[in-house]
Amino acid sequence: MLSTRSRRTRLLVASGATLAVAALLTACTPGTAEPAANSEKPSSNTEPTTVAAGETVTIGFSGPAADHGWLGAINSAAIAAAAEFPDVELIVAEGTNDASLQISQVETFINDKVDAIVLLPTDGAALTDVAIKAMQAGIPVINVDREFSSTFAARTTILGDNYGMGVSAGTYICEQLDGKKDAIVAEIAGIDSLPLTQDRSAGFKDALSDCGLSVNNRVAADFTVQGGEAATSQLLAAAPKIDAIWNHDDDQGIGVMAAINAAGRSEFFMVGGAGSKNAMDAIKAGNTVLQATVIYPATQAADGIAVARLIAQGGAMGDLVTQGVPQRIVLDAPVVTKDNVDQYMSVGFAS
After folding, report:
1. How sure is the predictor about 152, in pLDDT bands with cuts at 50, 70 and 90?
2. Same domain (yes/no): 61, 100
3. Residue 72 domain boundaries
4. DSSP H helix total and E strand total for the chain
């Protein structure tokens, strides 16, 4: 259900600290100023971005329950991004992992005749039909992170690069091992049944093969601290020597590190995944086996808000020659190390 209407931002449930978000997209909407050139790297500037106002648009946002650090950051970043636009009225549905409830939320957005919907579905296939219904009602849907099963369900899809995460992690490990052909590489995956985990593992395998390496030991956890600790304990017991580990997720990485410390193991280096603030702090300190992490942007829904605004106002993305907004946007998966960690601290999320 939806709360009573207010002028700017309407929230059903909004919890957690607001994440400072740098505007990654600039508008070329009627009546706006010329957009500034985008920076290639995240800015550490946390001052609000000044955006010239256009016609006020109402955007509905439905995302997951904030039961994971990355998911909490997704929600708070979307809210913070909307607050930077003087012409955006945001309706935030209660975060949920119940597909049926999320379907009803989207149906309410349709009945309210919002101008656009940003949707991170708890289950892409389950939300496909209602997203198509919204599109058929003339409401553009911005699909975030978990894809629908039909191209007709979204005007634009914004994704992190799961395969690219694996490639980035594998490439970094190859560089660090520098031709050591007998190196033992381990992998701590997330939930194996999820396509995103399968994509990450595929990218990792492909990148390692380019330098003559392979995954020698692999376990799967469940993106939780407890699961990370249990899976890592199993891995360390089975592998008396390891040269490098890639852990897919920095939230489960808290448990991974607990298992490593309990086992007293330090002969290897580790690469994390997603880009938590905790991981970045450890990388900067340089006093653990965690040497790097690969970004999986927690700003995807925030970007979705910016894109929804552009589409609803008939705008275009700044600096592109082609008019309009692309149908598919895949975000970068850079590696954060001690050398560049300060550039990414502003987008780190709390585990």
Report:
1. very high
2. yes
3. 9-160+300-320
4. 10, 13
